[in-house]
Specification:
The strands form three sheets. The chain has a five-stranded mixed beta sheet, with helices on both faces. A two-stranded antiparallel sheet has the order 1-2. Helix 2 links the parallel strand 3 and strand 4. The chain is elongated and about 100 Å long. Helix 12 runs parallel beside helix 14. Helix content is about 55%, strand content about 5%. It has 19 helices and nine strands.
Length: about 475
Protein backbone atom coordinates (compact mmCIF):
# COMPACT_ATOMS: atom_id res chain seq x y z
CA UNK A 1 0.00 0.00 0.00
CA UNK A 2 2.91 2.38 0.49
CA UNK A 3 6.67 2.69 0.51
CA UNK A 4 9.57 5.01 1.30
CA UNK A 5 12.74 5.60 -0.72
CA UNK A 6 15.79 4.28 1.19
CA UNK A 7 18.42 6.53 -0.34
CA UNK A 8 18.33 10.30 -0.53
CA UNK A 9 17.34 11.57 -3.98
CA UNK A 10 15.98 15.09 -4.38
CA UNK A 11 14.47 14.19 -7.76
CA UNK A 12 12.43 11.29 -6.43
CA UNK A 13 9.36 11.41 -4.23
CA UNK A 14 10.16 10.37 -0.67
CA UNK A 15 6.94 8.34 -0.26
CA UNK A 16 4.86 6.38 -2.75
CA UNK A 17 1.28 5.31 -1.98
CA UNK A 18 -0.96 3.02 -3.96
CA UNK A 19 -4.26 4.44 -5.29
CA UNK A 20 -7.43 4.37 -3.22
CA UNK A 21 -9.26 1.05 -3.33
CA UNK A 22 -12.17 -0.73 -1.69
CA UNK A 23 -9.89 -2.03 1.07
CA UNK A 24 -7.51 0.92 1.43
CA UNK A 25 -8.56 4.50 2.08
CA UNK A 26 -5.33 6.30 2.91
CA UNK A 27 -7.16 9.49 3.95
CA UNK A 28 -8.73 7.55 6.85
CA UNK A 29 -5.65 5.59 7.92
CA UNK A 30 -2.83 6.38 10.33
CA UNK A 31 0.23 4.17 10.25
CA UNK A 32 0.90 2.68 13.68
CA UNK A 33 -2.39 3.69 15.31
CA UNK A 34 -3.18 0.09 16.36
CA UNK A 35 0.08 -0.24 18.33
CA UNK A 36 0.15 3.38 19.55
CA UNK A 37 -3.39 3.91 20.83
CA UNK A 38 -2.78 2.55 24.34
CA UNK A 39 0.34 4.69 24.79
CA UNK A 40 -1.49 7.74 23.38
CA UNK A 41 -4.31 7.28 25.90
CA UNK A 42 -1.84 6.59 28.73
CA UNK A 43 0.28 9.72 28.16
CA UNK A 44 -2.62 11.83 26.81
CA UNK A 45 -0.38 12.88 23.94
CA UNK A 46 0.27 11.88 20.35
CA UNK A 47 3.38 12.51 18.29
CA UNK A 48 2.49 12.91 14.62
CA UNK A 49 5.19 12.24 12.03
CA UNK A 50 5.29 11.93 8.26
CA UNK A 51 6.36 8.40 7.38
CA UNK A 52 6.57 4.73 8.27
CA UNK A 53 10.27 4.57 9.15
CA UNK A 54 9.82 7.56 11.47
CA UNK A 55 7.29 5.53 13.46
CA UNK A 56 9.51 2.42 13.50
CA UNK A 57 12.61 4.26 14.68
CA UNK A 58 10.74 6.17 17.40
CA UNK A 59 9.20 2.91 18.66
CA UNK A 60 12.68 1.40 18.80
CA UNK A 61 13.79 4.47 20.77
CA UNK A 62 11.06 3.75 23.32
CA UNK A 63 8.51 6.34 22.20
CA UNK A 64 5.35 4.39 21.40
CA UNK A 65 2.69 7.14 21.28
CA UNK A 66 3.53 8.03 17.69
CA UNK A 67 1.64 7.67 14.39
CA UNK A 68 2.30 8.69 10.78
CA UNK A 69 0.19 10.23 8.05
CA UNK A 70 1.85 7.79 5.61
CA UNK A 71 3.53 10.49 3.59
CA UNK A 72 0.22 12.02 2.50
CA UNK A 73 -1.28 15.41 3.30
CA UNK A 74 -3.02 15.34 6.66
CA UNK A 75 -6.81 14.80 6.41
CA UNK A 76 -9.81 15.37 8.67
CA UNK A 77 -10.36 11.61 8.86
CA UNK A 78 -6.84 11.01 10.20
CA UNK A 79 -7.15 13.82 12.73
CA UNK A 80 -10.42 12.43 14.05
CA UNK A 81 -8.71 9.09 14.63
CA UNK A 82 -6.23 10.85 16.92
CA UNK A 83 -9.00 12.82 18.60
CA UNK A 84 -10.57 9.56 19.82
CA UNK A 85 -7.61 9.04 22.17
CA UNK A 86 -6.25 12.52 23.02
CA UNK A 87 -6.59 16.23 22.35
CA UNK A 88 -2.85 16.93 22.65
CA UNK A 89 -0.70 16.58 19.53
CA UNK A 90 2.94 17.38 18.87
CA UNK A 91 3.77 17.56 15.18
CA UNK A 92 7.30 16.44 14.18
CA UNK A 93 8.46 17.28 10.71
CA UNK A 94 11.73 17.37 8.83
CA UNK A 95 13.93 20.41 9.28
CA UNK A 96 13.97 21.27 5.56
CA UNK A 97 11.81 23.84 3.79
CA UNK A 98 9.31 21.19 2.65
CA UNK A 99 8.92 19.99 6.23
CA UNK A 100 8.24 23.52 7.42
CA UNK A 101 5.57 24.10 4.76
CA UNK A 102 3.94 20.76 5.56
CA UNK A 103 3.78 21.56 9.28
CA UNK A 104 2.16 24.95 8.69
CA UNK A 105 -0.42 23.48 6.31
CA UNK A 106 -1.39 20.65 8.65
CA UNK A 107 -1.76 22.88 11.72
CA UNK A 108 -4.93 24.56 10.47
CA UNK A 109 -6.65 21.19 10.00
CA UNK A 110 -5.68 20.15 13.54
CA UNK A 111 -7.02 23.42 14.94
CA UNK A 112 -10.34 22.98 13.14
CA UNK A 113 -10.85 19.71 15.00
CA UNK A 114 -10.27 21.35 18.39
CA UNK A 115 -6.86 19.82 19.21
CA UNK A 116 -4.10 21.43 21.30
CA UNK A 117 -1.07 21.73 19.03
CA UNK A 118 2.65 21.88 19.66
CA UNK A 119 5.30 21.73 16.96
CA UNK A 120 8.86 20.42 16.92
CA UNK A 121 11.09 21.18 13.98
CA UNK A 122 14.15 18.95 13.82
CA UNK A 123 17.61 20.22 12.81
CA UNK A 124 18.08 20.87 9.11
CA UNK A 125 18.69 17.66 7.19
CA UNK A 126 17.22 15.44 9.91
CA UNK A 127 13.92 13.58 10.06
CA UNK A 128 12.47 11.63 13.02
CA UNK A 129 13.90 8.40 11.61
CA UNK A 130 17.53 9.57 11.35
CA UNK A 131 17.35 11.61 14.54
CA UNK A 132 15.98 8.68 16.58
CA UNK A 133 18.75 6.37 15.34
CA UNK A 134 21.42 8.84 16.46
CA UNK A 135 20.09 9.31 20.00
CA UNK A 136 19.23 7.13 22.94
CA UNK A 137 15.65 6.80 24.12
CA UNK A 138 16.19 9.10 27.11
CA UNK A 139 18.04 11.81 25.18
CA UNK A 140 15.43 11.78 22.39
CA UNK A 141 12.62 12.10 24.95
CA UNK A 142 14.38 14.98 26.68
CA UNK A 143 14.94 16.68 23.33
CA UNK A 144 11.22 16.41 22.51
CA UNK A 145 10.17 17.92 25.85
CA UNK A 146 12.73 20.72 25.69
CA UNK A 147 12.17 21.81 22.09
CA UNK A 148 8.46 21.40 21.35
CA UNK A 149 6.84 24.80 21.12
CA UNK A 150 3.39 26.28 20.91
CA UNK A 151 2.17 26.51 17.35
CA UNK A 152 1.53 30.28 17.47
CA UNK A 153 5.08 31.04 18.58
CA UNK A 154 6.43 28.58 16.03
CA UNK A 155 4.38 29.87 13.11
CA UNK A 156 4.99 33.51 13.99
CA UNK A 157 8.76 33.01 14.30
CA UNK A 158 8.93 31.16 10.96
CA UNK A 159 6.85 33.74 9.09
CA UNK A 160 8.62 36.70 10.70
CA UNK A 161 11.93 35.41 9.38
CA UNK A 162 10.42 35.15 5.90
CA UNK A 163 8.81 38.61 6.08
CA UNK A 164 11.90 40.47 7.25
CA UNK A 165 11.41 44.24 7.16
CA UNK A 166 8.89 44.21 4.30
CA UNK A 167 5.65 45.89 5.58
CA UNK A 168 3.48 44.16 2.96
CA UNK A 169 4.94 40.78 3.90
CA UNK A 170 4.31 41.51 7.59
CA UNK A 171 0.68 42.38 6.80
CA UNK A 172 0.28 39.05 5.01
CA UNK A 173 1.91 37.33 7.98
CA UNK A 174 -0.62 38.85 10.38
CA UNK A 175 -3.51 37.76 8.16
CA UNK A 176 -2.07 34.23 8.04
CA UNK A 177 -1.78 34.07 11.83
CA UNK A 178 -5.30 35.49 12.25
CA UNK A 179 -6.64 32.81 9.90
CA UNK A 180 -5.20 30.08 12.13
CA UNK A 181 -6.43 31.60 15.40
CA UNK A 182 -9.95 32.03 14.01
CA UNK A 183 -10.20 28.26 13.51
CA UNK A 184 -9.93 27.57 17.26
CA UNK A 185 -13.36 26.69 18.64
CA UNK A 186 -12.71 27.37 22.33
CA UNK A 187 -13.23 31.06 23.17
CA UNK A 188 -10.74 31.19 26.05
CA UNK A 189 -7.99 29.42 24.12
CA UNK A 190 -8.53 31.70 21.14
CA UNK A 191 -8.26 34.79 23.36
CA UNK A 192 -5.02 33.55 24.92
CA UNK A 193 -3.50 32.97 21.48
CA UNK A 194 -4.63 36.43 20.35
CA UNK A 195 -2.88 37.99 23.33
CA UNK A 196 0.30 36.01 22.68
CA UNK A 197 0.28 36.94 18.99
CA UNK A 198 -0.26 40.61 19.87
CA UNK A 199 2.84 40.57 22.06
CA UNK A 200 5.01 38.82 19.47
CA UNK A 201 3.98 41.05 16.58
CA UNK A 202 3.86 44.30 18.59
CA UNK A 203 0.33 45.07 17.43
CA UNK A 204 -2.64 46.15 19.55
CA UNK A 205 -4.66 43.23 20.86
CA UNK A 206 -8.04 44.84 20.08
CA UNK A 207 -7.03 45.18 16.41
CA UNK A 208 -6.12 41.50 16.21
CA UNK A 209 -9.26 40.46 18.09
CA UNK A 210 -11.43 42.37 15.64
CA UNK A 211 -9.79 40.62 12.69
CA UNK A 212 -10.10 37.22 14.37
CA UNK A 213 -13.82 37.81 14.96
CA UNK A 214 -14.27 38.79 11.30
CA UNK A 215 -12.60 35.63 10.06
CA UNK A 216 -14.55 33.49 12.50
CA UNK A 217 -17.82 34.93 11.24
CA UNK A 218 -16.77 34.16 7.66
CA UNK A 219 -15.92 30.56 8.60
CA UNK A 220 -19.24 30.08 10.39
CA UNK A 221 -21.27 31.42 7.49
CA UNK A 222 -19.47 29.14 5.02
CA UNK A 223 -19.69 26.08 7.25
CA UNK A 224 -22.68 23.72 6.86
CA UNK A 225 -24.72 23.33 10.03
CA UNK A 226 -24.21 19.55 9.95
CA UNK A 227 -20.42 20.04 10.12
CA UNK A 228 -20.64 22.36 13.09
CA UNK A 229 -23.05 20.01 14.85
CA UNK A 230 -20.59 17.15 14.30
CA UNK A 231 -17.94 19.11 16.17
CA UNK A 232 -20.01 20.77 18.90
CA UNK A 233 -22.80 18.25 19.48
CA UNK A 234 -26.39 18.39 18.28
CA UNK A 235 -28.04 21.64 19.34
CA UNK A 236 -31.34 21.48 21.11
CA UNK A 237 -34.30 22.49 19.05
CA UNK A 238 -32.27 23.30 15.94
CA UNK A 239 -32.61 22.20 12.37
CA UNK A 240 -29.25 20.76 11.40
CA UNK A 241 -30.17 19.60 7.92
CA UNK A 242 -29.32 22.75 5.97
CA UNK A 243 -27.05 25.74 5.87
CA UNK A 244 -28.20 29.17 6.95
CA UNK A 245 -29.00 31.34 3.92
CA UNK A 246 -26.98 34.54 3.55
CA UNK A 247 -28.40 37.73 5.00
CA UNK A 248 -29.26 38.98 1.53
CA UNK A 249 -31.92 36.25 1.24
CA UNK A 250 -33.67 37.12 4.49
CA UNK A 251 -37.06 38.75 4.17
CA UNK A 252 -37.45 42.25 5.62
CA UNK A 253 -40.77 43.89 6.54
CA UNK A 254 -41.71 46.66 4.16
CA UNK A 255 -40.54 50.06 5.48
CA UNK A 256 -43.30 52.24 6.90
CA UNK A 257 -41.74 55.45 5.62
CA UNK A 258 -38.79 56.61 3.58
CA UNK A 259 -35.64 56.78 5.71
CA UNK A 260 -34.54 60.33 6.55
CA UNK A 261 -31.33 61.72 5.01
CA UNK A 262 -28.26 60.15 6.55
CA UNK A 263 -30.18 57.20 7.97
CA UNK A 264 -28.22 53.96 7.84
CA UNK A 265 -30.39 51.27 6.19
CA UNK A 266 -31.09 48.27 8.39
CA UNK A 267 -30.05 44.82 7.14
CA UNK A 268 -32.66 42.11 6.46
CA UNK A 269 -34.22 40.92 9.65
CA UNK A 270 -36.38 37.90 8.94
CA UNK A 271 -35.50 34.31 9.68
CA UNK A 272 -34.94 31.49 7.20
CA UNK A 273 -38.02 29.42 6.43
CA UNK A 274 -36.30 26.36 7.89
CA UNK A 275 -36.40 27.96 11.34
CA UNK A 276 -39.83 29.60 11.22
CA UNK A 277 -42.27 27.89 13.56
CA UNK A 278 -45.42 28.88 11.65
CA UNK A 279 -48.33 26.92 13.06
CA UNK A 280 -49.69 24.19 10.82
CA UNK A 281 -52.98 25.17 9.27
CA UNK A 282 -52.47 28.91 9.81
CA UNK A 283 -54.23 31.02 7.18
CA UNK A 284 -52.32 33.27 4.83
CA UNK A 285 -53.07 36.45 6.80
CA UNK A 286 -51.99 35.11 10.18
CA UNK A 287 -48.89 33.45 8.68
CA UNK A 288 -47.89 36.75 7.06
CA UNK A 289 -48.34 38.64 10.34
CA UNK A 290 -46.38 35.97 12.22
CA UNK A 291 -43.50 36.18 9.73
CA UNK A 292 -43.46 39.95 10.08
CA UNK A 293 -43.49 39.59 13.87
CA UNK A 294 -40.55 37.19 13.80
CA UNK A 295 -38.68 39.58 11.49
CA UNK A 296 -39.21 42.36 14.03
CA UNK A 297 -37.96 40.07 16.81
CA UNK A 298 -34.89 39.34 14.69
CA UNK A 299 -34.28 43.06 14.35
CA UNK A 300 -34.16 43.51 18.13
CA UNK A 301 -31.91 40.47 18.53
CA UNK A 302 -29.61 41.97 15.93
CA UNK A 303 -29.24 45.12 18.04
CA UNK A 304 -28.50 42.94 21.06
CA UNK A 305 -25.85 40.89 19.24
CA UNK A 306 -24.14 43.85 17.58
CA UNK A 307 -24.59 46.57 20.19
CA UNK A 308 -25.60 44.81 23.42
CA UNK A 309 -22.57 46.24 25.24
CA UNK A 310 -23.44 49.86 24.26
CA UNK A 311 -25.38 52.33 26.36
CA UNK A 312 -28.33 54.54 25.37
CA UNK A 313 -29.32 58.09 26.38
CA UNK A 314 -25.96 58.88 27.98
CA UNK A 315 -26.53 62.63 27.75
CA UNK A 316 -30.04 62.52 29.23
CA UNK A 317 -29.22 60.07 32.04
CA UNK A 318 -26.11 60.98 34.06
CA UNK A 319 -24.11 58.18 35.65
CA UNK A 320 -21.98 56.64 36.71
CA UNK A 321 -22.26 54.89 34.40
CA UNK A 322 -24.24 57.28 32.22
CA UNK A 323 -27.30 56.09 30.33
CA UNK A 324 -28.84 52.63 30.25
CA UNK A 325 -27.53 49.46 28.60
CA UNK A 326 -29.13 48.37 25.32
CA UNK A 327 -30.07 44.95 26.74
CA UNK A 328 -31.42 46.43 29.97
CA UNK A 329 -33.52 48.95 28.03
CA UNK A 330 -34.97 46.29 25.71
CA UNK A 331 -35.76 44.04 28.68
CA UNK A 332 -37.50 46.88 30.56
CA UNK A 333 -39.63 47.92 27.59
CA UNK A 334 -40.69 44.35 26.73
CA UNK A 335 -41.66 43.71 30.36
CA UNK A 336 -43.71 46.90 30.52
CA UNK A 337 -45.59 45.97 27.36
CA UNK A 338 -45.80 42.28 28.44
CA UNK A 339 -44.38 41.18 25.10
CA UNK A 340 -42.82 37.74 24.76
CA UNK A 341 -40.88 36.53 21.72
CA UNK A 342 -42.65 33.91 19.62
CA UNK A 343 -39.62 32.51 17.79
CA UNK A 344 -37.83 29.92 19.99
CA UNK A 345 -34.30 30.73 18.78
CA UNK A 346 -34.74 34.48 19.34
CA UNK A 347 -36.46 33.85 22.69
CA UNK A 348 -33.46 31.79 23.83
CA UNK A 349 -31.00 34.44 22.65
CA UNK A 350 -32.93 37.19 24.47
CA UNK A 351 -33.07 35.21 27.72
CA UNK A 352 -29.36 34.41 27.63
CA UNK A 353 -28.44 38.01 26.74
CA UNK A 354 -30.36 39.27 29.78
CA UNK A 355 -28.73 36.67 32.05
CA UNK A 356 -25.21 37.33 30.74
CA UNK A 357 -25.49 41.13 30.64
CA UNK A 358 -25.03 41.41 34.42
CA UNK A 359 -21.54 39.90 34.11
CA UNK A 360 -18.71 42.44 33.88
CA UNK A 361 -17.07 42.56 30.44
CA UNK A 362 -19.88 40.68 28.67
CA UNK A 363 -19.36 40.88 24.89
CA UNK A 364 -22.54 39.69 23.11
CA UNK A 365 -20.87 39.43 19.69
CA UNK A 366 -18.24 37.00 20.91
CA UNK A 367 -20.67 35.15 23.19
CA UNK A 368 -23.26 34.37 20.50
CA UNK A 369 -20.85 33.72 17.60
CA UNK A 370 -19.13 31.09 19.77
CA UNK A 371 -22.37 29.67 21.16
CA UNK A 372 -22.42 25.85 21.48
CA UNK A 373 -25.83 25.74 19.76
CA UNK A 374 -25.00 25.68 16.04
CA UNK A 375 -28.22 27.49 15.04
CA UNK A 376 -27.66 30.38 17.46
CA UNK A 377 -24.01 30.67 16.43
CA UNK A 378 -24.85 30.85 12.73
CA UNK A 379 -27.75 33.28 13.20
CA UNK A 380 -25.43 35.56 15.20
CA UNK A 381 -22.72 35.32 12.54
CA UNK A 382 -25.23 36.30 9.87
CA UNK A 383 -26.47 39.24 11.93
CA UNK A 384 -22.92 40.49 12.37
CA UNK A 385 -22.28 40.57 8.63
CA UNK A 386 -23.36 43.67 6.74
CA UNK A 387 -24.95 42.93 3.35
CA UNK A 388 -25.33 46.62 2.48
CA UNK A 389 -22.79 48.70 0.58
CA UNK A 390 -23.12 52.31 -0.50
CA UNK A 391 -23.39 52.89 -4.23
CA UNK A 392 -20.50 54.70 -5.91
CA UNK A 393 -22.46 57.93 -6.17
CA UNK A 394 -23.32 57.89 -2.44
CA UNK A 395 -19.73 57.04 -1.57
CA UNK A 396 -18.62 60.08 -3.57
CA UNK A 397 -21.14 62.64 -2.37
CA UNK A 398 -22.37 61.49 1.05
CA UNK A 399 -21.16 59.87 4.21
CA UNK A 400 -23.75 58.04 6.29
CA UNK A 401 -23.28 58.06 10.05
CA UNK A 402 -22.36 54.87 11.84
CA UNK A 403 -25.32 52.84 13.05
CA UNK A 404 -23.90 52.85 16.58
CA UNK A 405 -24.25 56.65 16.62
CA UNK A 406 -28.04 56.40 16.10
CA UNK A 407 -28.90 53.73 18.66
CA UNK A 408 -30.84 56.25 20.79
CA UNK A 409 -33.35 56.49 17.92
CA UNK A 410 -33.06 53.07 16.28
CA UNK A 411 -33.54 50.81 19.32
CA UNK A 412 -36.70 52.59 20.65
CA UNK A 413 -38.12 52.56 17.11
CA UNK A 414 -37.44 48.83 16.77
CA UNK A 415 -39.36 48.28 20.02
CA UNK A 416 -42.27 50.40 18.77
CA UNK A 417 -42.35 48.42 15.53
CA UNK A 418 -42.47 45.16 17.48
CA UNK A 419 -45.29 46.53 19.63
CA UNK A 420 -47.10 47.52 16.44
CA UNK A 421 -46.60 44.02 15.03
CA UNK A 422 -47.99 42.41 18.21
CA UNK A 423 -50.97 44.77 18.01
CA UNK A 424 -51.62 43.77 14.39
CA UNK A 425 -51.67 40.11 15.42
CA UNK A 426 -54.16 40.82 18.21
CA UNK A 427 -56.35 42.84 15.81
CA UNK A 428 -56.30 40.02 13.25
CA UNK A 429 -57.27 37.49 15.92
CA UNK A 430 -60.06 39.76 17.21
CA UNK A 431 -61.43 40.24 13.69
CA UNK A 432 -61.45 36.47 13.20
CA UNK A 433 -63.34 35.93 16.46
CA UNK A 434 -65.80 38.70 15.52
CA UNK A 435 -66.47 37.03 12.18
CA UNK A 436 -67.18 33.68 13.87
CA UNK A 437 -69.47 35.33 16.42
CA UNK A 438 -71.43 37.04 13.64
CA UNK A 439 -71.81 33.73 11.77
CA UNK A 440 -73.09 32.11 14.96
CA UNK A 441 -75.42 35.12 15.52
CA UNK A 442 -74.08 35.65 19.04
CA UNK A 443 -75.14 39.30 19.43
CA UNK A 444 -73.61 39.85 22.89
CA UNK A 445 -70.17 38.56 21.83
CA UNK A 446 -70.39 40.59 18.60
CA UNK A 447 -70.99 43.73 20.65
CA UNK A 448 -68.12 43.02 23.07
CA UNK A 449 -65.67 42.14 20.31
CA UNK A 450 -66.68 45.19 18.25
CA UNK A 451 -65.92 47.44 21.23
CA UNK A 452 -62.55 45.71 21.75
CA UNK A 453 -61.72 46.04 18.07
CA UNK A 454 -62.50 49.78 18.01
CA UNK A 455 -60.25 50.32 21.04
CA UNK A 456 -57.43 48.33 19.44
CA UNK A 457 -57.74 50.30 16.19
CA UNK A 458 -57.52 53.56 18.15
CA UNK A 459 -54.29 52.37 19.79
CA UNK A 460 -53.03 51.26 16.39
CA UNK A 461 -53.82 54.68 14.93
CA UNK A 462 -51.90 56.49 17.70
CA UNK A 463 -48.96 54.12 17.37
CA UNK A 464 -48.96 54.56 13.59
CA UNK A 465 -48.69 58.32 13.98
CA UNK A 466 -45.68 57.87 16.25
CA UNK A 467 -44.04 55.58 13.69
CA UNK A 468 -44.93 57.91 10.82
CA UNK A 469 -47.16 55.43 8.99
CA UNK A 470 -49.87 56.38 6.57
CA UNK A 471 -53.26 55.77 8.12
CA UNK A 472 -55.87 53.97 6.05
CA UNK A 473 -59.35 54.46 7.54
CA UNK A 474 -61.60 51.48 7.02
CA UNK A 475 -64.99 52.22 5.56
Amino acid sequence: FGGRILKKDDKTAKYINSPESEIYHKSNELYGIYFAKQAIAKYDKCYLVEGYTDVLSMHQAGIENVVASSGTALTHGQIRLIHRFTTNVTVLYDGDAAGIRASLKGINLLLEEGLNIKVLLLPDGEDPDSFARQHSASSFTEYLKANETDFIRFKTDILLKEAGDDPAARARLIQDIVESIALIADDITRTVYTTECSRQLSIREEVLQKEVDKRRIQHLRQQPVRERVARTGAPSGSNASSTLPPASQWEEPAPTQAPPPGFTPEPPTSTPDAYQPIEEGANQGSASVRRKLEALEANLIRYIVRFGDHRLFKEETPGPPPGIGVIEFIQRELNEEQIEFTHPVFATMLTEAIEQSVRPGFKPQRYFVNHPDATISLVAADMLSDPYELSKIHTKYATLPEEAEQLDELVPRALLELRNGVLEEIILETESRLKRAAQEKNDNEVMDLSTQLMALLDVKKDLAKTLGERIIVRQ
